[in-house]
Amino acid sequence: MVISLFRRKTSVSSKPQSSSVKGKILRRGFGGSRLFAPLTPLPKLACDLFLLSVRIALVILLSTARLVVPPSKKSLLGETVLVIVTRELALTITGAGHGIGRELAMQLAALGCVVVCWDTDVEANRDTMSIISKDGGEVHGFVVDVSKRVEVREAAKLMRKAGIPDVSILINNAAILMHQPFLEHKDEDIQKIFDVNVLSQFWTLQAFLPAMLQNKKGHIVSMCSMCGFYGVVNKVPYCSSKFAIRGLVEGLHEELRLAADSSNINFTTVYPFYADTGLAKDPKYRFPYIFGAVSPKYAAGEVIRAIQRNYEECSIPRCLLYLDVINRVLPKRAMRLIIDFLANVKR
After folding, report:
1. Domain range for residue 327?
2. Does 347 map to a domain?
3. What is the pLDDT of residues 184-231, one digit of tens each?
4. pTM for this structure?
5. What is the CATH number of the domain that holds 185?
6. d(Cα 345, Cα 347) in Å, to the nearest integer?
């Protein structure tokens, strides 16, 4: 069941082919018209390769320049932002009305966004809404279990009936983490992890992406994890769900990139290391000033910065994104040595 909380607003078919037809198709293909298509002429191939090399070089130069001079920030004033704030630990709700979800809602409201909060915790959601309303922001709240497709669709309908503007920024922040050896996980726990961490993003995308495409405007933010880059001991289901999120976002991004009239749909995948949200304990890695836990306030600020600059990927801290580049280049054994060194593990 979806519960709408109080609303605070201030002034501010084809037929099977016969064997004879199939035979004709096979013979025609074997004759060279399709199966043995003529090769690209060498001069044209050389020209295409040259143009490709030039374009790659330009992209590398532009990307390098962006490291020094980042893109300008876009205004978020008036945007309607849906923040999925549910965070759970060991399948017990800790309230997402705190943590990164609450900080995102408050900071986005301060930037002039219309904020919609979805949470499974009624009281935590009310508290978040109360804080935003007192500061003069516009906020709406709904109690929704995003792992259930029916509730997601029902909540989307309630939002339209309430006159809430179409969602232009969707932030999928729901997550469950269980820390224990793989064989100790119960079947229902693994199912729940994937329902909340992965399938919930499918349901919210199905509910809100059509309006973004119709309006030719939208931004989809998926909270992933550094566990989406590397497998981590005692977090096998969680890591698997985060790898799945990467596949979902990259696949959908490519699909829309090649589609017509979808160039204004932006994607941002966020890879936090450890945020002090109660979802996981600080792992006590070496170099704590780089690998230590960060506050939810700082993490939310980094997410908003990535949204404003239309970054496709963002890690928290920022430097950790380059570890994925190293991971793709180095042999697996070499990367494991680096990870063991950082974790102060002796083998």
Report:
1. 71-342
2. no
3. 999 999 999 999 999 999 999 999 999 999 999 999 999 999 888 888
4. 0.82
5. 3.40.50.720
6. 7
Give pLDDT < 70 ranges for the chain.
Answer: 6-39, 86-98, 261-262, 277-283, 345-347
The reply to whether 274 belongs to the active site is no
Write down the pLDDT at residue 93: 28
Residue 257: inside a domain, yes or no? yes
Task: Examine residue 47 and state whether it is found in any structural domain, yes or no.
Answer: no
* Closest C-alpha to 342, from 286, 283, 296, 259: 286
Q: Count how many domains the chain has.
A: 1
List the catalytic residue out of 230, 238, 298, 322: 238
pLDDT attached to residue 134: 94
Does the residue 57 lie in any domain? no
Query: What pLDDT sits at residue 27?
Result: 44
